[in-house]
Amino acid sequence: MRESATTLASEVSGNELSALLSALRSSSLSGPHLEIGTAAGGTLKELILSYPQGKRPPFVVVDPMSYFPDQMGIVRRNLASAGIDPDTIEFRIGKSWPMFQSAEQKGERFSFIFIDGSHKIHHVTEDLAWTRLLEAGGIVCFHDYAEKFPGVMNAVDRFLTRYPEYRILTRMESLLVVQKNAASSKREISAWDRIRARGINVVHQLRASATKKGLISREKTNF
User: Which of 69, 107, 204, 212 has the most neighbouring CB atoms within 10 Å?
Assistant: First the structure.
């Protein structure tokens, strides 16, 4: 069981949360807000509470709700404990990519996106496709942007290199805050990007497996 499932706290650090909320308050974002990967809803709760009641934008959450047992129930109880009616949040239970395809077909747009889902490069790449629905002037934030999560760093770095319309506003520990300055000149995340990311993920898995076997081998020599 994840620690956050018990504590109900955000999985971002205090410094990261301060930077995240500061970016929201200084941006005057009024359109729908999207969170991809919510864990126990700790960060979601803080995001919602950063807006005065009655002036809160619509919040949408995309998550398979299989992170730990009774995840949906825990998220709802977490929100309710802070005086937030969980029925005011639109929960889309499922994987990111098919949810994105549906949202794109409907012509949805978002002012803010917080990405904190799977750290595997092909999943991060698919989460990045949601930026296609981000309004110009909107904010997208990435959590766990750190060397110990190469899938996140590799996917985000490549994305920022290929799409100059996105500008880094700030980085605090493993939180990266990025603004979309204009509509992109090309569609974010192509079929090739997804294929490429899946291939790299296989390499990452093989490398992790080899490292693990090496550690087991060294341990055996110590006996």
Answer: 204
Residue with tokens 């002037």: 137
E strand or H helix at 39: none
DSSP string, 92-143: EES-HHHHHHHHHHTT--EEEEEE-S--SHHHHHHHHGGGGGEEEEEEEEES
For the chain, the 3-state helix, strand and coil shares in percent, each to the nearest 5, are: 50, 20, 35
CA–CA distance, 76 with 81 (Å, rounded to integer)? 9
Q: Spell 170-182 as b/e; 16+ CB within 10 A means b.
A: eebebbbbbbbee
pLDDT, one tens digit per residue, over 110-142 is: 999 999 999 999 999 999 999 999 999 999 999
Are 128 and 98 in contact, with CB atoms under 8 Å apart?
Answer: no
Q: How much is the pTM?
A: 0.91
pLDDT tens for residues 51-72?
Answer: 999 899 999 999 999 999 999 9
Sequence-distant (6+) residues with CB within 8 A of 64 are 93, 94, 95
